Known about the structure:
24% of the residues lie in helices and 21% in strands. A 4-stranded antiparallel β-sheet has the order 3-5-6-7, covered by helices on one side. Strands 2-1-4 form a 3-stranded antiparallel β-sheet, with helices on one face. The protein has helices at 5-24, 32-47; strands spanning 68-73, 76-80, 98-100, 105-107, 116-121, 130-134, 141-144. A hairpin with a 6-residue loop joins strand 6 and strand 7 (141-144). The chain starts with a helix and ends in a 5-residue tail after the last strand. The protein has 149 residues and is of the alpha+beta class. It has one domain (32-144). The chain is built from 2 helices and 7 strands.
Amino acid sequence: MKFNWKKFDWLLLFPLAATFLALLRPGDTVWLGDEAGLMALALQANEAGHPAAHGLVGSMGVAYGALVVWRPMPQGFRFEGLPPNVKMPTQWLQTPVLVQPNTPVVLGPEPLIPRQSITLSLPGSSSAPVRLATDGLRPFSIQNLQETP
Length: 149
């Protein structure tokens, strides 16, 4: 019987990743960076499909050049313009997350998108707000904001 390293690698990867993440973050602390990190990945995954190569499909199953809009909602958020088979998150990990400004984020269809930023905060938490921002050319980045007393 031949040993399959690919299957073995995946079996080790998940417990190792879970252990690593558990060591990085105290269990009872609300960390807004989780929300911002996952949102930046979701926004960038949708934006990555917009270098306008007509007829091709990106890694998320979205046709290149498709207009995708992220819209904050009262109890979460939604992505509009995705094919029905593409499932994206619609809820925050922690609730409630305050989004400022409460406006949509346009992801494409052009390679250059408008300069955009949103600020995420957890009301009643000691966590400092974080901003997800793009200049329209570079990927969304996470910026920790310091609250002034």
